[in-house]
Amino acid sequence: MALQVGDKIPNFSAIDTNANVFESDTVVGKKAFVIYFYPKDDTRVCTEQACSFRDQYEDFKALDTEVIGVSSDSVKSHQKFTNQYKLPFILLSDVDKKLRKLFGVPNDLFGLIPGRVTYVVDKNGVIQLVFNSMSGKIHIKKALEILKRT
Question: 83-142, pLDDT tens digit by residue?
Fold first, then answer.
């Protein structure tokens, strides 16, 4: 079942861009965060979305919010993607799609492409926004709107 607004974020772990284990409890209870699921590194819309998060990263930091990207790409792919576009936030590798299943992220309408969903989570680990759209850039605007209200 998909996570919804008002749900508490489940504990999770995954391998990050630096090949370290990321544990959700390193942010839950300490700061708000945006976790966004995207289909694939280095594709047009995914790159636009990542670069939009990069370009507004200071706005997120000013709101004491961390940004975390998730796709099923390998750590090596994430490292290349991060270096190429100078992404200041971590990417988590979800090769086995466990995180995607845990959050209930759907595939696109035709079931072929992994979905693009953004979750805004407050400092207490409660989901404040679930935004599902294959359009990449609008996710950043929606996330910042919610964070400014909380």
Answer: 999 999 999 999 999 999 999 998 876 767 888 999 999 999 999 999 988 777 788 899
The enclosing H or E element of 41 equals none
Residues tagged active-site: 46
| Domain-located, residue 111 | yes
Report how many domains make up the chain. 1
pTM over 0.85: yes
CATH (domain of 144): 3.40.30.10
Please state, in angstroms and rounded to a whole number, the distance separating the CA atoms of residues 39 and 87: 17
Q: Which residues of 113-131 are buried (b: 16+ CB within 10 A; e: fewer)?
A: ebbbbbbbbbeebbbbbbb
